[in-house]
Every structure is written in C-alpha cells, then in structure tokens.
Specification:
It is a single chain. By secondary structure, the protein is mostly beta strands. It has one domain: Jelly Rolls, CATH 2.60.120.10. Helices cover about 5% and strands about 40% of the residues. The strands form two sheets. Strands 1-7-4-9-2 form a five-stranded antiparallel sheet, with no helix packed on it. It has a five-stranded antiparallel sheet with strand order 6-5-8-3-10. A hairpin with a 4-residue loop joins β5 and β6. The longest helix is centred in the C-terminal third of the chain and has 9 residues. It is globular, with a radius of gyration of 15 Å. The two termini are about 20 Å apart. The structure holds dTDP-4-keto-6-deoxyglucose. The site of dTDP-4-keto-6-deoxyglucose has 10 residues, from β2, β3 and β4.
C-alpha cells in the first residue's frame, strides 16, 4: 500500500480566477481539527528540509504555488512524489519520516497541522525513528 494519501480540494474557480476552501469536520476534506497553519517559502535553491518524523502530529501539506519533491519513509519503505498542485493535499500521518527536496523558487508549501508546535514531538534522528517505528 502506498505511503501517499491524497486529499482533494476542489477548485472553486470562476472567470475571475481560482480559489480553494479548506474545511474540517464530518465529510470534509481535513480529517482532524486544525490547530496550526504554517507555510514554507523562499527556500534556498538546492536546499532540503524535513528529515524528521512526528510522534503524534498529523499534517496535510499543500503546495499552493510552485513545486517540491516529498519523500516519505515508514521505517520499512521509502517513496517519493511531487507536490505541485494547490488542489491536492498530502496527508502525512504520525510516525512517518519526511524529507522535502528540489523546491522551485516560487514554492509556497502550506501545512495544516493537528497539534500546536512542540519540539518534543519530533524525532530528528533516522536511526531512532527506525527503532521506535519497528518496535
Ligand atoms: C514538517 C515539515 C513539513 C516553530 O517555532 N513553529 C512551528 O510551527 C514550526 C513548523 C517550526 N518552528 C520552528 C522550529 C525550528 O526552529 O521553526 C524552525 C524550523 O522548523 P523545522 O526545522 O522543523 O522545519 P522543516 O521545514 O524541516 O519542517 C517543517 C515542520 O517543522 C514539520 O513539522 O512536517 O515542515
């Protein structure tokens, strides 16, 4: 089974342009209460981000402009995909290692998060992650 779980956000565009609405709740696209929203932009060209997993946090990442390459790793397999659409969110479950590479200059990566920021929720060492996820 693929590590990639996609959430579709329909474009509500009309002749004036495009719009996407993000809603949470029953039968809505976001399967958790959003406690935090952040966005990553102006990423150094050639730079990579991530290299961690979260113990509890679930997130949806949406590339609202430009593109970047996302790598997910569940401790057994590793897969990669491009985030390049403002209407496609990638659901990243807890205990999944993520890396982001090859950011385009115009990339804006919007992230919806199920929890407030907590450094104690991060696992930043890949060997620790492998041990914890496989135990
Ligand atoms: C993730 C990927 C997709 C805060 O103070 N508050 C916040 O809400 C966040 C997200 C970060 N920070 C601080 C912590 C670090 O000192 O901002 C700095 C950069 O964070 P980090 O190195 O974790 O950034 P990324 O791009 O490697 O990872 C981020 C998220 O942290 C992470 O949860 O899944 O984006």
């Amino acid at each position: 089974m693929s590590l990639f779980k996609w959430v579709e956000f329909p474009s509500l565009g009309d002749e004036r342009g495009s719009m996407v609405a993000v809603e949470m709740g029953q039968n809505k696209a976001v399967p958790f209460d959003i406690k935090r929203v952040y966005y990553i932009y102006n990423t150094e060209q050639g730079g990579s981000r991530g290299y961690h997993a979260h113990k509890q946090l679930k997130q949806i990442a949406i590339c609202v402009a430009g593109k970047c390459r996302m790598v997910l790793d569940d401790g057994t397999s590793r897969e990669e995909t491009w985030l390049d659409s403002p209407t496609k969110g990638l659901l990243i479950e807890n205990m999944v290692w993520r890396e982001m590479h090859d950011f385009s200059e115009d990339c804006v990566l919007l992230v919806l998060a199920s929890e407030h920021y907590d450094e104690a929720d991060y696992i930043r060492d890949h060997e620790d992650f492998r041990q914890q996820v496989n135990q």
